[in-house]
Design brief:
Blueprint (H helix, E strand, L loop, with lengths): L1 H14 L7 H28 L6 H15 L3 H7 L19 H21 L1 H12 L8 H32 L3 H4 L3 H12 L4 H43 L7 H32 L11 H23 L3 H6 L1
Length: 326
């Protein structure tokens, strides 16, 4: 039995060796991972607002789906994703990510994947707008209709980002060694409370860690929400036009509009997310500085916005003649 299994594995390796996994496969897995992470963010925000704030089986499954998708990336893409835009080496400023084409493939995949739960989260306001248009309360192409769409997508972006930031903070705290946690006053206080409730050392430590992660995560969600809504609403205006066929003037003009809109909003969004995460985690581990990785995160998200925004604009942009026919 073992020999047959080994032979099958050898044949599979010959048919599709690891190094030959295609970029199309990497793109598909990248989109899948980002979409699942986005839906997990939406669900986590909803659970925090309306539930107990503890990740249930549904959210855990979405996170697991994202981790699985990322694990299926080719070794080439995994190596690319570890590259940085700014070097940590003394005497060097720029890293290897700039010159690697797979950097931009991953950026496009992340943007496309995140757009799926973003659009899904905006469905309630889209339905509201459709109802108002049907009743003649507003014009389909009017400013009010556009504002409703933009605000809806901005709210969706806020829920998605807030939940994702909260989840990342919790995950980081849950992975911190106890020798780091015991130096944090907040952890010590929680640990003592758990011990006073009769819990053993290990159980008290684990419970204190989980509670500390949840509390830091919720605070991070609150801190990142205002800026997320602002940036999300600005970007949402462009995305709403793209989704409703209102990008008129040709594909290149629409692509330029998409890149010019999404690049700064995504860049500032990414940077602000990193600042919020650093601030919460720095309260637990002082070695984490407020500005650590902020420029890296901002540039990475900005490139995703440039590639994704330009791509969406190019695909959905219409000429004046085409628009006049509809």
């Amino acid at each position: 039995g073992d020999s047959i299994t080994e032979e099958v594995e050898e044949v599979e390796e010959i048919i599709q060796p690891e190094e030959d996994k295609g970029r199309l496969s990497d793109f598909a897995y990248g989109v899948t991972g980002a979409a699942n992470s986005g839906f997990a963010g939406l669900a986590r925000t909803a659970d925090t607002v309306f539930g107990d704030g503890v990740d249930g089986e549904f959210i855990q499954q979405l996170d697991s789906n994202a981790e699985y998708a990322n694990s299926q990336l080719s070794d080439r893409q995994k190596a690319t994703n570890q590259k940085k835009f700014f070097s940590d080496e003394e005497g060097e400023t720029f890293g290897e990510a700039w010159s690697d084409p797979d950097t931009y493939l991953n950026a496009a995949a992340q943007f496309a994947g995140s757009a799926i739960p973003l659009a899904a989260g905006g469905l309630p306001t889209s339905a509201l707008r459709a109802g108002l248009v049907a009743k003649g309360a507003i014009q389909a192409g009017g400013k009010i209709a556009g504002a409703i769409g933009a605000v809806g997508l901005g709210a969706s972006e806020t829920a998605l980002v807030s939940g994702s930031v909260g989840g990342e903070i919790q995950k980081t705290v849950n992975e911190m060694p106890f020798e780091v946690l015991v130096k944090a006053p907040a952890f010590v206080t929680l640990f003592q409370q758990k011990r006073s409730q009769g819990l053993g050392l290990d159980e008290a430590g684990n419970e204190a860690r989980l509670q500390l992660g949840r509390e830091a995560g919720v605070q991070g969600m609150k801190d990142v929400a205002p800026l997320s809504f602002m940036f999300g609403t600005v970007a949402g205006r462009f995305l709403d036009k793209a989704m409703t066929g209102k990008l008129v003037g040709g594909r290149l003009k629409a692509a330029s509009a998409g890149g010019l809109t999404e690049t700064p909003t995504e860049g500032l969004q990414g940077a602000s997310e990193q600042v919020v995460k650093n601030e919460q985690l720095g309260k637990i581990n002082p070695e984490i500085g407020r500005w650590d990785g902020v420029l890296e995160a901002g540039v990475g998200e900005a490139i995703g916005g440039l590639v994704g925004g330009a791509g969406i604009g190019y695909v959905t942009g219409r000429s004046h003649e085409d628009a006049a026919e509809t």
